[in-house]
Design a protein that fits this description.
By secondary structure, the chain is of the alpha/beta class. It is built from ten helices and ten strands.
Length: 300
């Protein structure tokens, strides 16, 4: 008999392409992955992995079994969904991810409501940026992800995923209190053509959005500092080191010395939740989506 957990390990190896990637996706050690694969090779009586430089690759037998493993695991997920639906209760384990400001501004209320309303449901949270979160849901590494895109830059969502809107998150321009525009009721992004910008890390979805938006307005932005966390960006603004775009979700408490001014042509993020469409019938998924939507409605 083929062991389901060992097939899950093989599937992770095929999807991630390395022992370390599979271990990260499964939240286990690399030695645990190697041990599971050694046991699986003994069970099937064939070599499934071969050395490839410093890493490994799947043999022909490994690829063949990995294809079957993907189908088997998909059927197992459908069976779990059917059983949950038949039972009618949100129980078991649910793996959720959210981007940092949603983790701070949206998840606490959501998790509290799920604990109260569905005590048999165990929810584990992971902080992930939108693009890797979508990939993780597609791969089955997590069950449900809170992601975002911007009003003028959508996030690609594969057809295998379902999604539901949670809220629109307006963003303001954060500037030092002594900035010449700090007393304005509204500003345009073009007003900051000569300012230094504080932004996110290179390659991050929000950073790419800011560069795209400013350049579309004929501004070549001068990026002075980068910080992953919005609160770190605001601390740099408070020190007089530049300006930044500051969404409102999870933004408080505000540091002293920072002035927030709304943008005249509204700048906003769309926040929504995604999950695998083949898990749509799971009561735990429906319960989590409902709790997230209630938490989002409470912020509007």
């Amino acid at each position: 008999m083929l062991n389901l957990e060992r097939l899950r390990t093989l599937d992770a190896l095929a999807r991630h392409g390395s022992v370390s990637g599979a271990a990260a996706g499964l939240h286990v050690t690399t030695s645990a992955v190697s041990q599971q694969m050694a046991k699986l090779e003994r069970e099937v009586g064939q070599q499934l992995l071969a050395k490839n430089g410093r890493g490994v690759r799947l043999t022909d037998a490994g690829r063949l079994l990995a294809d079957h493993a993907a189908r088997i695991l998909s059927q197992v997920e459908l069976a779990q969904a059917d059983l949950e639906e038949q039972r009618g209760k949100a129980v078991g384990e649910l793996r959720v991810s959210a981007f940092p400001t949603a983790m701070r501004g949206l998840l606490p209320a959501t998790l509290s409501a799920l604990r109260t309303d569905h005590p048999g449901l165990r929810v584990g949270c992971h902080e992930l940026e939108p693009a890797p979160a979508v990939t993780a849901v597609v791969r089955g590494d997590i069950d449900l992800a809170v992601v975002l895109d911007w009003y003028n830059k959508p996030l690609p969502i594969p057809d295998v995923l379902a999604k539901a809107p949670l809220l629109d998150d307006p963003a303001d321009v954060a500037m030092p209190a002594a900035h010449p525009l700090a007393d304005r009721a509204e500003v345009d992004l073009e007003d900051f053509a000569d300012d230094e910008w504080i932004t996110w890390g290179e390659g991050e979805f929000c950073h790419e959005w800011l560069m795209f938006t400013l350049r579309d307005k004929g501004i070549e932005p001068r990026v002075a500092h980068r910080a992953e966390e919005h609160h770190t960006q605001l601390a740099l603004v408070a020190a007089g080191l530049g300006v930044c775009v500051a969404p409102r979700l999870g933004r408080d408490p505000m540091p002293a010395g920072v002035r927030m001014v709304p943008v005249r042509q509204r700048v906003r993020r769309h926040v929504y939740v995604v999950w695998r469409a083949d898990a749509d019938r799971r009561p735990s998924i429906r319960a989590a989506v409902e709790a997230l939507r209630a938490a989002g409605a409470g912020l509007r």
